[in-house]
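Running this now, will post back.
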Amino acid sequence: MDQPIPQYNNTHRAFLQAFISRGTLTLEQAKPILAAILTAHDGRETLPGDVTEADFNTYVHAISDEISSFDLAIRSTLSQHDRCRIFALVNTTSDPITQLATTHSADEISFLKRLLDAMFETHNTPRQEVMAISSMQAVRLHKNPAGSTGDTPSGGAGTSAGHGLSMTGAERTLEELVREGWLERSRRDFYSLSPRALVELRQYLLTTYNDPAEDDDDSDAEQRYDRIKFCVACKDIITVVSACFPFSLRCATLLILSKGQRCATRDCPCRLHNICTESFFRTQPSRTCPLCKVDWTGNDFVGEKAVTSAERAERRSGGAQRRRTIPAATQQVDADGEYGARA
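Update: finished.
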């Protein structure tokens, strides 16, 4: 833009309102919004191409400063699929699960917690780090566990949330969580956390699913199993699944299959986003794990790909003939957290 951006004014307020209504924005999504706002404010046409990254960052910083007194901030993360930077409006103080209680019932919050437990405990084992849940598995979590007295949104004991949701209610809640930008749904009908959820729930996930660090006890540190892992290249959380149906969180260019990779050594914590792999190994003396130094196969996966690759390997070996006709989304997990066909 030709003119410098003035101090906080109605253009910032209008852009904040657009941010609130969407929850997340990328630079490419923000350009037409800012262009329309400036056109209406200045009385002359501003094209999306006239809005630069510097203009966008100036608005983001100005708005962040203004809303900080309300315990709000605009934070960003990189997409696990294509490294597109995504900006999210987040609450800096309260538990994000508590925030959802303003728009969802106690039973829906309890259902969400069961989804998270399924993603990061049941379907996240040393053998298969799926960190996603099929639609059928998700709907089966519609009822509260037997004997449950219900939880408050903050996680403590409280008023009973009832018997849970109906199956139809669970399906509707899943659709709402996708529409609100908390979940993503893949082409193979798996649900996983969205970039917005990973930004807002980051500390919650680390506190809930990772063992507390014991810096003064090396023996305990060796025995720890962290269910939330980070890409050694970009240092962001890695949970990626297959490419998802297009919706507001995603960059328009994301149309390819994406996945995460893990070291072939089961006990090694090294993980890489697929999109980070090539650039990372270009800077390394050899294509080996930077932690344990074994060869990096590129065939050991994190996310939904951990399920589909296991299926292909089993078919090549000639086993489990009956599973050939059963979609991955209709499978269930056994007592060890492994995917298998329904009986």
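The radius of gyration is 22 Å. More later if anyone needs it.
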